[in-house]
Each structure stands twice: as C-alpha cells, then as structure tokens.
Design a protein that fits this description.
The structure is a homodimer of 549-residue chains.
Chain A (H helix, E strand, L loop, with lengths): L21 H5 L3 H9 L40 H11 L3 E3 L6 E3 L1 H20 L3 E2 L5 E3 H4 L3 H7 L4 E6 L2 E9 L4 H11 L8 E10 L13 E11 L2 H22 L5 E4 L11 E8 L5 E11 L1 H6 L2 E3 L5 E3 L1 E8 L1 H10 L16 E5 L4 H20 L4 E3 L7 H10 L4 E5 L1 H6 L1 E6 L8 E6 L2 H28 L2 E3 L3 H9 L3 E5 L4 H11 L2 E6 L7 E2 L6 E2 L2 E5 L3
Parallel strand pairs in A: 3-7, 15-16, 15-17, 20-21
Antiparallel strand pairs in A: 1-2, 4-6, 5-6, 7-8, 8-14, 9-10, 9-22, 10-11, 11-14, 12-13, 17-18, 18-19, 21-25, 22-25, 23-24
C-alpha cells in the first residue's frame, strides 16, 4: 500500500455513467458552505473570514446527495470560495470540532512532510540540532519581555486546571517559544565556549485567532521554530540572514514560489525582535502572504531572562539571539500560488504523488495486459525514485479519474490503454498545460527512455510553475512615486513599490486609508537616489506595500 | 557541523591536568539532586519519585564549582539516582519550568529521531498515512465513552481561557486522541469502500501525572498514535496484532531490548479498549516497563461516536477499531536496559553517534598529521553511512574524552595517535567491553578493511547488547506454581511467571500484597495443562507478574 490513502471522497461515487462531467458535480464542499454562510460581505481591507463566533463548532456533515450540482467555484469568481473548495475536495484538511482548529488530512500532511524533509536537512547542514521544549509556559514568562507580552497576550490559550485542581499559576499553551527557550538557555550557557547554541524544534503552537482560515491562520498550527544564541551581534545578524536565505531558496526551488525577501518595517517587526526578515509571496488574488520570517532578537530576550556568558576577557555579557519559523501556512501559499479553476496544482518537488497512472480498458480480455503494463511502468518509475501511484479502481471511469487527479494537483498523468500495450508506449499528460497541448503520445515504456522523459517533464513543470508565478508577480507590482500612485496601485489590487522614509504614523495612515501595509523593504533595491513617496524627503530604500493575509 | 551539539557540559572544563579522573568529578547532576531532595525514602512497591509538589519548579541552577566531587552514582547503589545522573550528564534531557515537564535536549532528541525514522517507515509499509488532529478536544467528547472518561479524567489539563475570554466549554489538552479521531472518522466513513481507514500521527500529549520521572512519566510527552477503522472484528484484531509485532521487532532489532509481548489482563486493559496488547521490558533494576501498546478497541468508540458504515449488503454497521502507541518513554527503557556504572550504553542502530574519533598528540609537529588522519577516517566512515564524530577540542585531554564519550554511550571509539599515523592504522575500542579486552590495535585505515571492520563491530555490539539483556531477563524470571512462590519471586525483585485463571479481585489482591501486577499473558505459552497458581483451577495461560514503572 502506498503512503497516501484517499478514503472517503473517491468512494462516494459508485456510478460512473457520465464520466468526465460527473465527479465535479458530486464533490462535497464543507469549507465553502461554512465560510459563505458566515461571511456574506468581504471586506476590502483585510481577511474577514470568520468561521463561527461560537466556541465550538463541528464541521457540517458531508451530504453528497444534496451536493449534486456543486462544482469548484471558479477562481476568478470568488477566490476565497475557490480556496475552500480545493481544500475540501482535494482532501487536504477538514475542520476540527473546536472553532478555528483544523485536521490536516493525509494528502495535506504529505505536503507538510515534503516541506519538513527538505528544511530539516538544511537546518542540520547549517549546524542546528533538533530538540523539544515543553508547550506549557508559566504565564509570568510571557510578561518578562515588554513588547512580547503586548504582541501575544490577546491571543493566548490558558490552562488553568490540571489533574482536577485549579493551578496556582496559569499556564500558557505555547504561542512561540522564545521565553521558555531563554529560560533554558540561561541554565545551559556559561561561557563563550557554549556559543553559538543553535537549535530547532518541530512543534504545534496555539494562537487564539478570531479570524481563521484553513492553513493560513488557524488556532493551532504546526511549524518549526529555530532559536540561536551568539557571542556577537554580527554573528546573530549573519544567522538571521542565513535562515531567511534558506527559506527563500526553499520557496523558489521547492515550492516554485517567487517570494520577495526583505526586512520588515518597525511597525511590522515581530513582538520582541530588533529586526524581522520576511519572505512575502503573491497569492493568485494578488494579496501578500507572509510565508516565513527570521528575527534578529538582539539582546531583548537575553536581558529579560538574564541569559549571559563570560567572554574571552572574563566579562559577563548578554547573548545575541535569533529565531525563525515556517509553518503549515506555507501549504496555503502553495494552493493560492499555483491552483487554477481545475483545482490544486502542486510543484513536482513537493507533490506527494508526482505521477498518477491510469489504466484504460473496455473489454475483459484487455484488462490483464493493461494492468500488467501499468504495474511495470510503476515499478520502473518507483525504482528511479519517482513518487508514483496507480488508480486502478473499477468503480470509476478513466474520465472521472483524469478530473479527480487533476483536481488533486498531480503534476503528470500516464495513461495506458490496450493500444499502448501493443506498441510498448504510454500517453503522458501535464497538469499545468490543459488539454491536447499538454498531452504526448507514444512515449516508450523502456526504462532508459521513460525515466529520463518523466524526470525532464517534472523538471520542466517545476520551472514552468515558477516562471508563470514570477510573471504574474512582476506584472502585478507597480513602481510608484507618490501616495496617489500608491493608492491607485492598491485600488487595482496590485502591489506598490516605492521609496519610503516616512514615519510610523504615515505607515499606519496608509494602512488605514488603503488597507495595505509595508510587506518589506526588499533586499534587492534599485540604484540611485530616491525621494520618499509620502514626504518627498530623501529615502534610502523602496518598500513594498500590499494587502495581505 | 554535525547534527549533534553538546554545548554546555563539555565546555565547563578548561583545565585538563588530571585527565581521566577529572571529568567524572566535575559533572553536574541537577536531576539527581532534585529527586533525592524530595524523595528521602524509596517505596518497595512502586515508583515514588516525586519531583515536587508545588505547581512550578525550575530546575536547580547548574553550579559545577560546587559539584567537584560528584560522580555518577553506581547503578547497584541507587538505581534511580544512577538513572537521573545519566540523563543529566549525557545531556539527554532537563527539567522544564513547569513541574513534571521535560526539555528533550539534542542528544536525547536524536535518539527519538532514530526511533521515528524506523517506525515511520514501518507504518507506511503497513499501509498507514500520517496526518494531524487538533490537540484541543471538547470536554464533552471525553465523557462519551464510559471507561475512557473514568481512566483519563483525573489526569486532564484543561484550557478554560482563550483570547482573554472564559470559554463556554472547557477544552481538554489531548491525553490521547481516540475521541477526536472518532468524531472525524464519523464524517469521513460512509461505506465499506472507505475501509480500512489507517492513519498515524506524531504528536505531543499531556497527562497530569503526579509522580513524574524523566522520559518514563512526564506531564507532556511525545509519541505516535495509530488509529484504524475496519469493516470486521477479524481485521481489527489482525491489525492490533500486526502493530504489536512491529513494536516487538523494533524493540529486538533496533533497541536490543528483549521485550515480552502479550495480552494485558482485563484489569490492565486500556480505558476504552476490548483488548490491549503490550510489550514489556525488564529494566536493569528488574522492574517492568510497558514499552508500547496496541489496542483492539472493538466497537466501543464507534458506538459512542456513531461511527458507522454501509456494508456490502446495504446494512449500517459500527466500525471495528484499533489504536497503538510508542512514546519518548522508550528512551527511558533504553537507558535502563543497557546503561552501566560508566553511563549510557546505546544500541548502535539507534545511537546518534556510532563512532567517536579521538585524535591524540603531544608535540605541535604531530598535530597536523594526526588531525589529517582523523579527518580522512571520518570521511571514509561517513561515506559508508556510519554516524561518526570527531572530538578534536583542545581544552580536554584524550583521557577526559574517553570517559566523556563512554558516558554518552557511543558504541565505538577510534583513537589515532602519531604512531598510528605512521603505520596507517587506528585503535578501536568497544563501549560494551571495558578496558583492554575491548580494545584492538592496528586496524588499517584502508577503506576496504576499515569500513567492514567497523560495521562488523557495530553489528557485534548490537547483538551482544541484546544477548546480555536477554540473559539478564531470563535469569530474572521465575516460574511459579503457587502464590507463595509468586510472593517469593517478587520479594527477590524478580518477575514471576505462572498459570493464572483467577478473578480480577485476586489480581488486585496480588497487587496490594506484593506490589506486582500482571504485565501480560505472553504470546509464547508453555505447552500442557496448567493449574492456576492462586486457585488451583485449570488455567489456559501463564501470566507474568512484576513490579513496574
């Protein structure tokens, strides 16, 4: 049995009379129904998807019989409905019973595992060790760093009862671990020889968000959080930059998402950090998604927790620190970057299934030959390290399967029919090029030609997804020189890039008036002298403004 | 940089004048001090290690200067102190700030990663997919299955405040996930075609334990929990047996722990299960450790949660289920099975470092040659997939390093000095055979001879650890025919194995009078007719009685 199981959706359909048209009509859409029911008008300034205001809400029962004429909402018609339809139909996630929580289903979790595999190796290569900190943090810890408590206290979940008794001190369910990490670092770090201390943990975190959206913002989510301590500010700065670079490469090379890396404005800096670096991704609706962050924490937490070391001259000093994280939110970013009206579209490097093989036959005597050829192709590709799956269920037509696996975003489809068996060849179709244009007949099943062909196609799809997303991004960023131009760009739904040296108050005014925030001061800056778009004063850098998730 | 960082302990020692004797004297022992401070008398019936009765307690500060004459307590002298000394000195774990919680440090976590790597692959091979369920469970869920709530309600942690507001319904922080799993399964399972549904999650769980002990019983721990649903009771039973078999093979082949697999008595069955299968391991103090369990849940949860499917005849039926888990407790089992007075002893297959290389030189002109040889040996072994590390720090003597890495349980040590460099050879020492007997000189550094030699030695150590543990186990199990003999065996600290068909009340009487419980009815049963040791009535099976963690 393969690693993926798709138990409920596919097996709802026993009849297959109308082939290709049928599956879409039958798909049940719990996410979309829930969200549209609670959110009749969409705000123009920020996400307003509120799943429910009551404390507990079970997901609506799946009632496929009543859903016969539901289809995936076209992306252009209602981006949010489209997003929720994909999550439900591709079985990426479902609602948990507690408001704002999410069950990550096997197909969605397999994407997370692919993300973990890549990043985990990179973290180790760059000298970090995994470990695990408890998730219960004494409430008093959160209060120690002034801006940290201000940032996090509104969204804490608190344990007040343990083992049947009221606790003396409330416990915070980890929203992030800087405080408990520093509490421990203070005990482990004594001298400069203990530095740098570089660790990471893969964990769940809880933030009591009022406005939730699957993957993008949930009450509990999964992430990795790196934490490091250094002897000098320069080392901490290098580490923070190194890790945002790891994230940037990951986004480009694995997820085919052309993020823009840069520095956050003071207003948008993490609660407790000196500097926050970020990667910002443009979603299909042109809203920005903060897809990963790396913080230079300076000595803020080490001063709050007394994390000191003795330097080479015998002086006691506070350590310089960083923290950095990527979460399951990134999966939402992949969906909203590459998906189309047909459904999900996964970059080959993160796809749980890279190739789906669909056997096709009509007469009983064709069956064995076709299935044998299917198995043989699967074995050839598997031996070459390609993630491949056969859909040989007999309850559904090939047309139904084509649609289903396109909707699931599998990059390549191989079709094998009786004629292909006799000619020793297969038909290969690309998910990213619809219809006949993406379909090639007569690919030999000889390992020596099939394997390189499939690998090349997967590579081509990977680059093509990045190329398409990059063009989309670039055609939706406007260079602006004045606040009027900025407003115009934002009103058009685009990102605005322009010189900025104005005040925090001006930044907040832009947010209030346009709904856009500074996403970052990009690392890549245009040459030459610049004037602030707001004040006309000299500006060192351009900033990118956009509405965001 | 390698995957492992050992930041604080090693760097406390800057002087190295008295070489081999020095490190033991300097080791700081926070665990031991904490436990001995709170636990002056040790009960003979069960573990009574109570870390603290106050809600919050930080681990004692590390004060190496004051610890100069501390050593690892000999195992024979005080098993519990020895255990805590190892955890502290080998930097496997530390106390979290909240009573009963544990920070798993990089070296301890790396053992957990090795456990995960093996089991994760086995779970996928046997058809399970990973996914993730939210950790917050509505309190009402826990109450739905009568024996489940009885078993778990005393040890729940409850979230009562979220986002600054009192919640309408208290939320349970996951102690195990059967209830939320069934809530979701009820929505995903419709027909027999959706079955079997076989999933697993790697997660943290919380149980408000009063008596905690690092790894063995902590307020929060890490585990995997498998959950499956089937169309027939036979399939569920096969699955429960299959998974206890996966655990058994893991224990024998990876951890070198000769567990005894069997069925729990009714009294000891999991709260909510029809049958519980277990693997029971004998620790170095001859107490039993329940090291993994697999439950046949029957229809208990599916009835409580209405998890039904339509069978092939169109009838609605409740699904048959299993769940199974192994946790970070297993790391405690490894420590207490293989460790000795010198410290930890890790089975090569789970060791984060399989080979430690220690360069030895006195004169400055020897340094380069020795270090080059060291690097070359490391590269040769690494290329062969062996986990290898060099300790080339210049603050410590070779003697100090020998002791340190023995204490950390690294299976093989390679020493390279100037004479070895000239002869193109190395010295190889086994952790499991102390002194000269475990030391072999003149092993060629040619890849073609070094690699197979090291691999063979690692295999030998792996088998040898299992052999030693098996002999120890077998010499400490007494076959008993009467209650008097059972009491005698338990009084001697041994396990008692004897025919049993008596009542639950008799079982509880044994527990009360001897401190021993039925660990399991082993799968391997002696032939022939048997009479119950308690009642003299015919008995179908022998049971194993022991004191346990």
């Amino acid at each position: 049995m393969g690693a993926l199981r798709l138990p409920s959706l596919t097996s709802l359909f026993t009849s297959s009379s109308s082939a290709a048209a049928l599956p879409r009509r039958h798909l049940h859409l719990p996410f979309r129904r829930l969200y549209t029911a609670n959110c009749s008008a969409q705000s123009s300034t920020a996400e307003k998807e509120i799943s429910s205001t009551s404390e507990l809400e079970g997901p609506p029962k799946l009632k496929p019989q009543q859903d016969k004429d539901r289809v995936i909402t076209p992306r252009s018609q209602d981006f949010n409905a489209w997003y929720l339809d994909i999550i439900a139909n591709a079985e990426l996630a479902d609602y948990g019973p507690v408001r704002g929580t999410m069950v990550i289903r096997p197909y969605g979790y397999a994407i997370w595992e692919a993300i973990q595999d890549y990043l985990n190796a990179k973290f180790k290569e760059t000298g970090h060790s995994n470990m695990y900190f408890p998730q219960f943090i004494p409430y008093s810890f959160i209060e120690k760093e002034a801006s940290h408590v201000e940032g996090f206290s509104p969204e804490l979940a608190l344990v007040t009862i343990g083992g049947g008794k009221e606790l003396e001190e409330k416990l915070v369910v980890r929203p992030t671990s800087e405080t408990i990490v520093n509490h421990m670092f203070t005990q482990w770090i004594h001298s400069y020889r203990d530095l740098p201390l570089m660790i990471n943990q893969w964990a769940n975190v809880t933030r009591w968000e009022m406005r939730t959206k699957p993957f993008v913002r949930t009450l509990e989510f999964l992430w990795q959080e790196g934490h490091t301590a250094h002897a000098t500010p320069e080392e901490a700065e290098m580490e923070a930059l190194q890790m945002i670079d790891v994230y940037t490469k990951f986004a480009y090379e694995q997820a085919a998402i052309p993020v823009i890396a840069g520095r956050k404005s003071k207003v948008e800096t993490f609660a407790g950090a000196s500097k926050t670096y970020t990667i910002e991704a443009m979603m299909g609706d042109r809203k920005a998604l903060q897809a990963g962050t790396s913080h230079n924490l300076g000595q803020n937490f080490s001063r709050a927790f007394g994390t000191q070391f003795t330097d080479e001259n015998g002086q006691r000093e506070h350590v310089w620190q960083t923290s950095w994280a990527i979460s399951t939110r990134f999966i939402g970013g992949i969906i909203m970057t590459h998906g189309d009206d047909t459904g999900l579209m996964l970059p080959p490097k993160l796809a749980p299934v890279q190739v789906i093989i669909i056997p096709i036959w009509k007469k009983a005597d064709e069956r064995t030959g076709v299935l044998n050829a299917t198995t043989s192709v699967k074995e050839i590709l598997e031996a070459a390290g390609i993630k491949v799956k056969i859909d040989d269920s007999e309850q559904r037509t090939p047309g139904w399967k084509f649609n289903f696996w396109e909707m699931k975003g599998v990059p390549l489809r191989i079709e094998i029919g009786p004629r292909d068996v006799s000619s020793g060849s297969v038909v290969v179709s690309r998910r990213d090029i619809p219809g006949k244009q993406g379909k090639v007949f007569g690919i030999s099943t000889e390992s020596s030609s099939l394997v390189p062909y499939v690998k090349d196609k997967l590579d081509e799809i990977q680059s093509s997804l990045l190329g398409v997303a990059t063009s989309f991004r670039d055609s939706n960023i406007m260079d602006v020189c004045s606040y009027a131009e900025l407003k115009e760009a934002i009103a058009q739904g685009k990102w605005a890039r322009g010189p900025w040296s104005a005040s925090d108050n001006d930044e907040l005014k832009v947010k209030e008036e346009t709904g856009a925030t500074i996403r970052c001061f990009p690392f890549e800056q245009p040459q030459g002298s610049k004037k602030c778009l707001m004040t006309g004063n000299p500006a060192d850098e351009v900033a990118i403004f956009a509405k965001s998730y």
